[in-house]
Amino acid sequence: MGCCKSSFLKPSSLHAKKTYSDDISVRRGGKRSNPHHRNNNKDDGDGGCGGGRGWHFSNVPDFSEFSAADLRDATNNFSVNAVVSSCSDQETNVVYRGCLKGDMRRIAVKKFSKSTWPDPKQFAEEARAIGKMRHMRLVNLIGYCCDGDERLLVSEYMPNDTLPKHLFHWEKQTMEWAMRLRAALYVAEALEYCRQSGRKLYHDLNAYRVLFDENGSPRLSCFGWMKHSKDGKNFSTNLAYTPPEYLRSGTLIPESVVFSFGTFLLDLLSGKHVPPSHAVDTIQKENLLVLIDSHLEGNYPEEEAATVFDLATKCLHNNPKDRPEIKDIISVLATLQHKPDVPSYEMLGISKLENPETESQNSLIYDACHRMDLEALHQILEATDYKDDEVTCELSFQQWAQQIKDVWNTRQQGDSAFRNTDFKSAIEKYTQFIETGIMISPTVYARRSMCHLFCDQPDAALRDAMQAQCVYPEWPTAFYLQAVALAKLNMLQDSANMLKEASILEDKRLVN
């Protein structure tokens, strides 16, 4: 199987179940146990306080309480491979993707620490209040769990990534101007609906809170309505983007949400994170072209760009009382919508998921390799660490001499370089580690292969991935890396076959 065959060291333990793809696919079989899964939402129709503007949510389940066992099972015991990677670097609470076995539904699970919400009753009350809201512009909250020390929120799963993926880290095409304006309007509509529903504070509004559904439409994450702690004194974004009143008092007010929306508009204008002060200084120097995303290549009306920036500067006013209301923001943005009949997925350049509940599921590493997303693949290898070496690395007592300590330090230096994306230095240190011949690590070969891919050295990457397979013959990661390297070498059919083999091996891990 694969590019290298060896009977050396078969795995004795397999640590990870298959994780979940970036579409709304589902795992087959099984039925959820229901003892701790209760319906706590008696609202029907448009659901939630304040109404839903008549939107119908037949496919959104009632808000429920889940057991910790259900959610551990759905996320493979909160596996690192199930962590949603595309989130803010400053985010203090982890979000996982998962699959509820009973109703074949994909979910996202946000995990809080008990220290931020020590009282389970307060956590449950806050979650239930948010769970009453239902709107097509929201990623709706469908449940919670506060069993024991667990503090978990459960929401709908959005299959088409976050806004930064399409705005900052795009691969095929930059986000067109009309889609940026649509994202701004939809987020504003979500904020206004929730304001009317009595939820005026959205905590830490930023581009990572905007996700795209199966139709490619942007939605605002419900998780931002939940305070990061019971007192609400938490703001995780870089201080350069923090509302000035928060810096003064340590608390948020409704006008703080408008300030954050202003920073969000700057992201849409520039295609990158621009601190508000820098953006204002730029426009005051009459240099709007410096701020606007150059990847738009002039494909936008200048008067509209000026209107959006003027709106952003009003939102960023130092005095909260001088900022516009959300309803006024909506009025401005509504006049800028020029493609109402064009589906969002067409503007994003993605395919619509015709039957998202029955799409085949793939793991995070499969999706990353299929998309040739080296950054995502790097994050996965970094998160996996050296768990798979447990089945291949056995050291005798005499090896723990000074020599082995030196070798271990070399590997740690390579790991540090790998973590900091200094791939040339990582290659050098990993090579030193390998050449000693004292320890054989498939993970080191895999990491060096990853480094070669980043350095545009697919031949070397393929050799290392093959060597990782020789050390660990049934390791899916080795096959996945071979698939990426083969694709880089334009051996597309071989790459597709290798990707299929990797997926088969991962399926075997589920069985075993």
Automatic annotation (TrEMBL):
The alphabetized list of GO BP terms reads:
brassinosteroid mediated signaling pathway
Pfam families given in the database record: PK_Tyr_Ser-Thr, TPR_BSK1_C
* Domain of life, source organism: Eukaryota
Q: Where are the transmembrane segments?
A: none
Q: Where in the cell is it found?
A: Cell membrane
Q: Which GO terms describe its molecular function?
A: ATP binding; protein serine kinase activity; protein serine/threonine kinase activity
Q: Where is the Protein kinase domain?
A: 81-336
Tell me, what does this protein do in biology?
Answer: Serine/threonine kinase that acts as positive regulator of brassinosteroid (BR) signaling downstream of the receptor kinase BRI1.
From the Swiss-Prot or TrEMBL record, give the protein name: Serine/threonine-protein kinase BSK
User: Which species does this protein come from?
Assistant: Eutrema salsugineum (Saltwater cress)
Highest lineage ranks of the organism? Eukaryota, Viridiplantae, Streptophyta, Embryophyta, Tracheophyta
